[in-house]
Design a protein that fits this description.
- The chain contains 2 helices and 15 strands.
- It has 232 residues and is mostly beta strands.
- The model is unreliable at 8-16 (pLDDT under 50).
Length: 232
């Protein structure tokens, strides 16, 4: 499995249009073209910002290479260009082209992946909106993350549940500052799992975070394909 870096994508400004689900592209015959070569495969994943196409000739494609896809779906023939982000046994992964947001949508806003790291909560805002430093920072264990949220594990904390928002530093091999807001809680054994909505305080940190999520997604798919191959 070999991933490359990820460019930033842009969202669609058309908010009132009715969209098809990307799932309509799943299991559809997909023609993949590059310079002087054409082959046919099957669309096997449309999760997050990556598409996976199962191909016998996967090893003939290079990372970063531009390809044209033609998908023969129940919603009609869909053609678009993209870039090969990764390749692994029997498949290639490409970026979901931003132009597809004009035609399709995903029910899940952001793709969430397992992650190991720490979250250090430094400040909390009460209902009056005043942000105050904590007497002592709270340490939490990070267990999953997306571009718009994260999950943490820590002892029960009334402060987290009472604050309207929190300011924290996430350490994920790289560090970034963010604002957090509690969305859900779940008790597991001796700790609580908190689901948080997240807003990056530095927009430049979106690039490394997005690259992390994409790489982890490819790793998950690679392991899944390897496990499936061993069962055959």
């Amino acid at each position: 499995m070999q991933p490359i870096g990820a460019p930033l994508r842009k969202g669609s400004s058309n908010q009132e249009k009715e969209y098809l689900s990307l799932k309509v592209l799943l299991h559809c015959r997909t023609v993949v073209e590059k310079a002087d070569f054409v082959t046919t495969g099957v669309m096997t994943q449309v999760e997050g910002e990556l598409f996976e196409i199962e191909l016998n000739e996967f090893d003939l494609f290079e990372l970063g290479e531009t390809v044209k896809l033609t998908v023969y779906s129940p919603a009609g023939i869909q053609s678009f260009q993209s870039i090969v982000f990764a390749k692994y046994e029997g498949a290639i992964a490409i970026f979901q082209p931003p132009a597809l947001s004009d035609r399709f949508q995903e029910k899940r806003e952001f793709y969430r992946v397992n992650a190991e790291g720490t979250v250090r909560i430094l400040r909390a805002a009460s209902d009056d909106g005043v942000v105050r430093p904590l007497p002592e920072p709270l340490e939490a264990e990070l267990f999953d993350i997306s571009l718009g949220g994260l999950g943490i594990r820590m002892p029960e904390s009334p402060l987290i549940e009472q604050a309207s928002r929190l300011e924290a530093v996430v350490q994920l091999g790289f560090a970034f500052d963010c604002e957090l807001a509690l969305v859900r809680r779940e008790r597991l054994e001796h700790a609580l799992h908190y689901g948080m909505r997240m807003k990056l305080l530095d927009a430049e940190m979106l690039r490394p975070l997005r690259a992390f999520v994409l790489r982890r997604q490819v790793e998950i798919q690679s392991r899944s394909r390897q496990a499936a191959g061993k069962k055959r």
